[in-house]
Structures are given as C-alpha cells and as structure tokens.
Amino acid sequence: MRIELHEVTKRFATTTAVDRVSLEIGDGELFTLLGPSGCGKTTLLRLIAGFNAVDGGEIRFGARRVNALPPHQRNIGVVFQNYALWPHMTVRGNVTYGLRLRKLPASEIGRRLAAGLARVNLTGLEDRYPGQLSGGQQQRVALARALVLNPDILLLDEPLSNLDAKIRVQVRGEIRALQQDLGITTVYVTHDQEEALSLSDRVAVMREGRVQQVAPPKTLYERPLNRFVADFVGTNNFVRGVVKTVADGRVVVDTPLGPIRARPGDVAAGGPCVVAVRPENVSLEGAGDNVVEGRVRLASYLGNTLRYDVETAPGLVLKVDVGDPWQHDVLPAGRTVRVAFAASATLVLRDD
Description:
24% helix; 5-stranded antiparallel β-sheet; alpha+beta; 20 strands; 352 residues
C-alpha cells in the first residue's frame, strides 16, 4: 500500500509539531522516521494512524484519502513503544483481541492465531501472561497482534527502546526479515540512528517538525545535506570555514587548521560553511590531501575501534578511529601526531 503525505501539518496550541511535511512511501517499503525527542516523528506516525486529526494537508493510502477516517477503518496494524499488552490476558487473548472485536468465526481466529505466533516464533506460549515473558517476547506478542489483522500498513513507534542492547539487535533483524517476507508497507519511528540505518529502505530525518532529508541509509550517511543530518546520523568532525575556491571537482576551504580540500557542496565561493569528515576516514598516517598536526588528548577503547581525540588547535579536537586496535599500540596523551584525511571523504555543508 502506497502512502502519500502532502503538506501535512499538526499544531498543539501554539506549538507546530508537524510542519508542512510531504512524503511518498512506496508499496512494500520499510520507511523510517528518525530524529531526536520532540522532533515530531511520533506525532506524524499518529497522524498516519488516525489517532490525531491533521490541521492541514492530506494523507492518502493508495488512491484513498484517509484524513477523516478513524483508525479502525484504515486497515493498519500498530506496535506501540510500551507494547500496550493487557496484563490480565494471556498471549492468546492479547493476540486475538482485535479479531474478536471484529467478530470473526472461532475457526478463523484460531487459524490466524497459530499463523501469527509462528511468524514471530512464539508457538507454544499461547497460555502465558505478559508478566511471564521476556521483553523481547512481549515485543513479539505486540507484533503478532498487529499482523493477525492482515493490515495494509504496519506502524511501529520505537518498538525496541525498552529492550537490552543485544536483544534489540536480534529483534530488529527479525522485524526486517519478517517485513521483507510479508512485503508489507511499514513506517518505523526511532531516535536510534544505527537502528534506522540497519533496518530501512529509506529514512526521513526530522527536526522541529520538518523533514531535513529523505534518502537510503548509505546516501544519508555518506551524503548528508546539512550539518544537523551529518551530526545526528553517526559521528562527525566539524570545522567551520569559508569556501575559497571551487574548481575541477574540488573545493578549498579556509579554516583555523589552514586550507582544507574537500568534495563540492552547495556552498559557493566566499560563503561560510562547515567542513565535515568522519573519524573512520581520518588516519594517523600523516599522508593525504589534508594533513594536520596535533597532540593526543585522549584514547578511548571501544572494542572493535580505538578512538583518539587529537587537539589540532586551541579548542578544536578531531576524532580519529583506528579500526584494528589489536594491531595498534595505544599512543600516550601528549604525543604529537600528524592526522590525514582525503578530500574525497570530506564534505562541505551549510552551517545551520
């Protein structure tokens, strides 16, 4: 089911929570709304679900305008952040709740229950209560309850936020595999950028009710449109400067670190900008398009990565990642180093 939003707006008193958002979500796509708390992503999901009425704009499911339709007429399945399971009902009771409200025959309810639990690997747990289940199992119950309704669209509002980190990685993989198997259009809300990158076909990054960028995960990470997106999605080093020249597919930016060569952006010569380069693209080799001298201020062991904070100018620190700590002797604080990064890995962004 295709979803189209055109100039959708939602206000609460004097606050505009969703500000003229236009999006197109393809049939069978897993589309993620990503952003910090309070950016409007959950409000936008609730507008799609019909839990809140839009104050402006239009929402369409396929060719059907759904602005005035209540949630139960939109044929959606919803998984909430806190799962919203009835504690006094068994797994069977929770999963079949919506089916019983629809007054389906007992044989059909039994068939859908069995198929739904099999999809989420909960067969045999029908008679357990939510309090007898792990967090991951409770999340699967909520997912099964949404899927047994055979919805055209699945909406998930931060469904993994209450799970431990390791279980979260496992369950998100299960959600992605299930979504691809069913081919169901899915809108997923999260503030976790790693979650968004690993799950999604495309991601919309939101800020203060507005969409900053819509792109596949790889494009979003490697080609952010502005500083906010570059900063929110992953880790970046930022250096303010002014574009000096733009020629031959390269940009030269005057910065406190000296001239920095970078990929072209949408900032013209003479314009203020921010130069961005990710820690994994900075090396301690001291050879490359851009070479800067500094002193090691801190070394942080992160397991599969060793991250250095290198002070390159007063108050200016570059983060440098060493990808194979086992083969690297940790440098002490105060050691002078030369860090380098390629122009092809360096972005010129609008300073917002």
